[in-house]
Design a protein that fits this description.
Elements lengths: L8 E7 L6 H15 L3 E7 L6 H8 L6 E7 L5 H11 L4 E4 L8 H12 L5 E9 L3 H17 L9 E7 H8 L8 H8 L3 E8 L11 H15 L2 H29 L8 H33 L7 E7 L5
Parallel strand pairs: 1-2, 1-4, 2-3, 5-7
Antiparallel strand pairs: 3-8, 4-6, 5-6
Helix pairs in contact: 1-4, 5-8, 9-10
Amino acid sequence: MQPLLNPSLTVVVPVYGNEGSITPLIAALASIKAETGVPFEAVFVVDGSPDQSYARLREQLPSAGFDAQLVSLSRNFGAFSAIRVGLEHARNSIIAVMAADLQEPPSLVIELFKALSGGDKDIAMGVREAREDPGLSKLMSSTFWSLYRRFVMPDIPKGGVDIFAVSADMRDRLLQLKESNTSLLAQLFWLGGRRAFVPYQRLRREHGKSAWTLKKKLRYLSDSVFAFTDLPVRLLMGIGMLALIATICLSILILVAKLSGLVSVPGYAGTMVTILFFGALNSLGLGVVGAYAWRTFENTKARPLSILQSLETFQERHS
């Protein structure tokens, strides 16, 4: 495979609650442009941010020193929907995703770009080897990604993946997947392709507070499980088999107790145990089936995954 001819770079930046980091973010992007030395643009997607992120970007981008697109969504659709919007608007041959809070070092984007410039990879992912977060945050993140690897995608690195870069062809394949209530990360692994992994150390957040809360992590894990695995169905089948064995054993026990005269009210114990046991099993089964039915119903609505409020383009100023 020959290296890409005249590679170019687009950096997609989802923005939510990042007004304090806008100035250093733009400076970081300018440094990426200078170091890569290739045609460059940044696509900022403001995901219904309640602060002044949009206003600060609109004020500073005309003099940022690089081409940029500023997209505003009509409300908060979530980081992964914002990333998809950025991917849709990217115009260059390599597209990288970068966090607006600068917890991933800007040098990582350069390394991801280099990994794809050879033309022999479709996707490059940043793999966290360490992080400068508080102890509780580290524990929660480690637990989340352990569950994700075990129940959703075993191929995902232990530290998880937050930042990645794709070729334009890989981006096009990804955008063909239109389902809602899903996992962008799991979609990337499901698509396959030729992967490269770049290790890095995640930095401490300097501005604002992360919107990636425990509630959102659990929702994301749930969506990923139901969208990419049949684990709940297999669990239900396993529980059903165990229930069958337990029912047989219980029936034998009740029969022995009845023949031994230990049951004072004929049929009462067996009836109550059977009703309670299978009632609980039936509720579990309905919950699993309902979860799949709801996600199928959501996808049949064919609603757009996001709605643009506005789109502005800023050209690099040349002296």
